[in-house]
Description:
Strands 3-2-1-4-5 form a five-stranded parallel beta sheet, sandwiched between helices. The longest helix is centred in the middle third of the chain and has 16 residues, at 103-118. It has helices at 15-26, 44-55, 103-118, 140-152, 155-159, 175-184, 209-221, 230-233, and strands at 6-10, 30-37, 60-65, 122-124, 165-167. Helix 1 crosses helix 6 and helix 6 (175-184) packs across helix 7. The chain has eight helices and five strands, in the order E-H-E-H-E-H-E-H-H-E-H-H-H.
Amino acid sequence: MSDRQKAVVLLSGGLDSATVLALAVRQGFAAYALTIDYGQRHRFELDAARRLAESLRATRHLVLSIDLRAIGGSALTDSIDVPKRRPRECPAAGIPVTYVPARNTVFLSLALAWCEALRAEDILIGVNAVDFSGYPDCRPAFIESFERLAGLATKAGVEGTAHYRIHAPLLRWNKAQIIRAGHEAGVDFSLTHSCYDPAEDGAACGSCDACSLRSRGFREAGLPDPTRYVAQSAGGDHGADPPS
């Protein structure tokens, strides 16, 4: 890879995307971090993304705003309760209501647009097909299909001046492996935010899918969990152990 090759990195503010950004920087990419403000139910992950872009020395951090609340259909963009304490075998329980319709398709499309404008060829995304809550747009088949689409749907791809690559380095890792890799790459996980349904002060609920996966991941990685949970903010134990 040539020195400081450009890459667009989707940065949500969670631990997966933080790890991907850290890995991209470590690999020598000039990382252009892209965060999507899509009308999600809280702003804490957007603040986390800004902190992470600065901490991990992204070349540039762009926040794009689109309003998926107008479409709805998800607990993250509509007046639907976030499910709590779902069974550990998430895919067996079905696709949860926290799935945002076509979100990763939309996000990768915007990343592809910026990638083409930058005359870059690489896009990195933190999707994961192991601990992924059952979302259909986190599977290998989706990533492979979008990479083929990128060559067909762009001027640079059609003219043969670019060959787009969609990198999903975390695709087959579990949360513990992701956390260990992020730790080794210098991620400060106290800057990240994962909770779907935080308190007004940003404390994590400790019982949504994202909190459960995160808590178990830190425990299995053998690393301290820096997350501030609701019960902690009230002066007690966080009680965020995931359901067995």
